[in-house]
UniProtKB/TrEMBL annotation:
GO terms for cellular component: nucleus. SUPFAM superfamilies: DHS-like NAD/FAD-binding domain (SSF52467). Zn(2+) binds at residues 141, 146, 219, 222. PANTHER family: NAD-DEPENDENT PROTEIN DEACYLASE SIRTUIN-5, MITOCHONDRIAL-RELATED (PTHR11085). Residues 10-328 form the Deacetylase sirtuin-type domain. This is NAD-dependent deacetylase sirtuin-5.
Length: 337
């Protein structure tokens, strides 16, 4: 195997990095399909990885209209937790690198399955970022007669009843407390910023209150309907206008390159876009930590599989167009084209 072009990517052959860079530089229309692995190194769990369980629930089973109907309090606690977690982490160099590529290349379209708001916070140009599964920070009224939608609602907690409990709230079970005593004996810290420490409500040993529907977020417009998270749940239609824009873009001409980043490619239509791009002539590059996770249709000759952490791989492979990206997204070098 040839030496790596980059000390940051010791396991990727030089020839693959070179052929990708050469193709990227001449690519005019580029598609990226993003998944939860993009945000993994920011500290957010993926759906199907080790962090895919929330308490005893499979995260994908809480993301359904049926779960919300059966227990809106539980589903809001799950989403309030995810809003809080995502607000407390930062975009990583891959989010910044993709945002920079969007500024550098007019013909670059990004389709994201992520609802965490990190691409937006990395200043990814909004007209080039299409959110297939909605956003944690959009909320909408469930009343059939209202349907009010509020975008970019970053209030955390969205209502007081959904505040993350702290150790002062004494909702931890005895099993949790015993484990904490053990941690403390081993020198683990018990507070952040000197205040009471927030409890991790994804842990089944932290008790959750049963919230009455009255305590959940209600519509500021009709003052009656219950609000729900503005994400697409399993069994629901994807946003029609977003799908139309993506399809129009795909149909508009040949596509040179499709990057599939940090997704298990299990959920359609996202999993099928690489194949659609291929039909329009694209070569496909997969960036994933797990060699087994290829997009629908698999890989073909001329494609690339860059195995590794997206936060490291993406800025490296885009470097020939975007220059060096620092930790906070600052440009530390100049583009060479
Ligand atoms: P998954 O959890 O299914 O897959 C995450 C992918 O990221 C896996 O292929 C991992 O191998 C990969 N991965 C993990 N850490 C990585 C890292 N540091 N760098 C690169 N890759 C890494 O998440 P998605 O594919 O995004 O839908 O899931 C798709 C949809 O299923 C989600 O949008 C959500 C979920 O149910 C809805 O909620 C509608």
């Amino acid at each position: 195997m040839a030496a790596s072009a980059s000390s940051k990517l010791p396991n990727i052959p030089q020839a693959d990095l070179d052929s990708f860079a050469e193709h990227l530089q001449k690519s005019k229309r580029i598609l990226a399909v993003l998944g939860a692995g993009l945000s993994a190194s920011s500290g957010l769990p993926t759906f199907r990885g080790a962090g895919g369980l929330w308490r005893q629930h499979d995260a994908t089973q809480l993301a359904t209209p049926e779960a919300f109907e059966a227990d809106p309090g539980l589903v809001w606690q799950f989403y309030s937790y995810r809003r809080h977690m995502a607000l407390n982490v930062n975009p990583n160099p891959a989010h910044f690198a993709l945002a920079e590529l969007a500024r550098k290349r007019d013909g670059f379209l990004t389709i994201s399955q992520n609802v965490d708001g990190l691409s937006q916070r990395a200043n990814h140009p909004r007209d080039k970022l299409h959110l297939l599964h909605g956003s944690l920070y959009d909320v909408r009224c469930t009343s059939f007669y209202c349907r009010h939608v509020e975008t970019n609602n970053f209030t955390d907690p969205i209502v007081p009843a959904l505040a993350i409990p702290t150790e002062d709230d004494a909702v931890a079970t005895s099993a949790f407390q015993a484990r904490e005593r053990e941690h403390q004996q081993h020198g683990a810290s018990t507070s952040i910023n000197g205040g009471p420490r927030e409890l991790d409500i994804s842990d089944i040993d932290v008790a959750l209150p049963d919230l009455p529907v009255d305590a959940l977020p209600h519509c500021p417009k009709c003052h009656n309907g219950l609000l729900r998270p503005g994400v697409v749940w399993f069994g629901e239609m994807l946003p029609g206008a977003t799908l139309d824009t993506i399809n129009d873009w795909i149909e508009a001409g040949p596509i040179d390159l499709c990057m599939v980043i940090g997704t298990s490619s299990k959920v359609y239509p996202a999993a099928g876009y690489a194949m659609e791009a291929r039909v329009k002539g694209a070569r496909v590059a997969v960036i994933n930590i797990d060699k087994g996770d290829e997009p629908g249709g698999g890989l073909m000759q001329g494609d690339w599989f860059f195995q590794g952490d997206a936060a490291v791989v993406v800025p490296e492979i885009l470097k020939s167009v975007i220059g060096e990206i620092g930790q906070e997204g600052r440009m530390v070098g100049q583009s060479n084209i």
